[in-house]
Design goal:
The longest helix has 15 residues. 40% of the residues lie in helices and 23% in strands. The chain contains 8 helices and 7 strands. The chain is of the alpha/beta class. Strands 3-2-1-4-5-7-6 form a 7-stranded mixed beta sheet, with helices on both faces. It has a single domain, classed as Vaccinia Virus protein VP39 (Rossmann fold), CATH 3.40.50.
């Protein structure tokens, strides 16, 4: 199949199974107009995030990497009454766009955006832990550190989701000097040897190319 077909299949799935949501469409349009990188999750992947959060009844969600708030909106829509989501974004201009998108979606009361490098803002979240679901979709070289932090600040039954783990198959190249690939390979090494988690990863093809999502269940408290 060609990349054109991958995109067409994504569109077919979204047309049938993903609700037509003006707030989500507006978030994408506003992000594009503001010049943000078009690297947000695809609509069918966004709904997958929401369904996973709903399936475990997540009350406390942490997202590392806000961008324009598109995936944030999907995850926040899964929250039950009294739930809350914290999302971390290093770029103030991206965070400004996300604030507006989240407000337009009517979710400002349940979403908190913290601006700054995640390495600086994560320590301030100790008091909010443990989290029920943690979605890691930020700078790839730091993914191993984010993963280790996530395991320490989760509980038995939490889900840790890590995006962009396949890198168009370059993840197989052990000799790669690409920091993004090195970060993901190190993440896989850590995930495969940490006795507190059980996980897998699935390859994805579609409008976002060839990549993948890792899904890890925390099986023991830290």
């Amino acid at each position: 199949m060609s990349e054109t077909n991958f995109v067409a299949v994504d569109e077919y799935i979204a047309e049938l199974l993903v609700e037509d949501d003006p707030a989500l469409k507006a978030a994408l349009a506003a992000s594009e107009a503001a010049g943000l990188p078009q690297i947000n999750v695809a609509p069918n992947q966004g709904k997958l995030l929401m369904l996973l959060a709903q399936a475990i009844g997540a009350h406390k969600i942490l997202e590392i990497g806000t961008l324009g708030g598109y995936s944030t909106i999907w995850l926040a829509r899964a929250l039950p009454p009294g739930g809350a989501l914290v999302t971390l974004e290093s770029n103030p201009s991206y965070a400004k766009v996300a604030y507006a998108n989240i407000a337009r979606a009517g979710l400002s009361s349940v979403v908190e955006i913290r601006v700054g490098r995640a390495s600086d803002t994560l320590p301030s979240l100790d008091e909010k832990a443990p989290f029920d679901l943690i979605f890691i979709d930020a700078d790839k070289p730091s993914t191993p550190n984010y993963f280790q932090w996530a395991v320490r600040h989760a509980h038995r039954g939490s889900l840790i989701l890590v995006d962009n783990v396949i890198r168009e198959g370059v993840i197989l190249e052990g000799s790669s000097d690409d920091p993004n690939v090195l970060g993901m390979r190190r993440f896989f090494e850590l995930a495969s040897t940490d006795p507190r988690v059980s996980g897998t990863a699935i390859q994805t093809v579609g409008s976002k190319g060839h990549d993948g999502l890792a899904i890890l269940l925390v099986t023991a408290d830290s």
